[in-house]
Known about the structure:
By secondary structure, the chain is an alpha/beta fold. The protein contains eleven helices and eight strands. The protein has a single domain (19-285), classed as TIM Barrel (Alpha-Beta Barrel), CATH 3.20.20.370. The strands form two sheets. Strands 1, 2, 3, 6 and 7 form a five-stranded parallel β-sheet that branches. A three-stranded mixed β-sheet has the order 5-4-8, with helices on both faces. Helix 5 runs parallel beside helix 6 (151-159) and helix 8 (210-227) packs parallel to helix 10 (243-257). The chain is globular and about 55 Å long.
Amino acid sequence: MRMHEHPTINYPEYHWPAGKRCAVVFSLDLDAESPFLWLHRGQQVQQLGEIEQRRFGPRQGLARVVRLFAEYGIRGSFYVPGVVAQTYPGLLPFLLEGGHEIAHHGYYHERIEAIPVAQAEDYLVMAQELFCTQTGLSGLGHRAPSWEMTSDFLQTLERRGVSYDSSLMGFDHPYHVGNMVEVPVQWTVDDALYFRYTNSPRDKTHPANPGAVLDSWIEEFEGVRETGGLFMVTLHDWISGRSQRLRLLRKLIAHIRHDPQVWWARADEVAAWHAASPNRDLYRVPAHSINTHFESATRG
């Protein structure tokens, strides 16, 4: 029995605009304190350590990242939980003034697969209404908290007019999951994997050496360039807004920016390119493709 419904292998090469070899997107998940509050929802929280560490993001870290982007002319994609936009009402206008994309990232940084689909839709609608009130914008993109997704919620995103999703990793360039454009992410180029540390039981090791991470990210970029993919960098306000990580980012940007084969873009621009390009019909997989029942193999 096949594990899913799509047997195709050996896809053709992806084509980027203007003959570019690859695309680069710098994205930031502006979580602030929302994951901590979601994890401890319904509980009386006394400790201040992690929540203050996370509040460094909207207080200082975000502005520092935005200044670095402005220095190099980078327009980034910022995925913002609704409660963060509500708590910091000047945040979305600040990002738009810099030419950056704003997109949805849950409301409370809730994990989609852990709540009923109706509740997940309610949170999405709350976020859409809040963003529209604060900016006048609708039809924005979406990235799921913790990068988890369900088939049902993909259909919800489509029904609610979300323009694209950026949560999955089925290709290293844009593709369709059902009717939804997917702009893929990648764990290897996510700062939280290396630097997230709050001195809690969830932390298994100390933060990584930034020099080693820089080498790893440069190698990943070079590999993506060779294969013609998307280099999607994912940052967090309270992590990469720190001085050490800003220096890492500066060195990474300096390495990439001299390559004329790179298309520097926002995630919404990548999604729009894919939806209007000849690529759109070449990379399409079904949303319902999970089969957790395996029949025992028998031999005649």
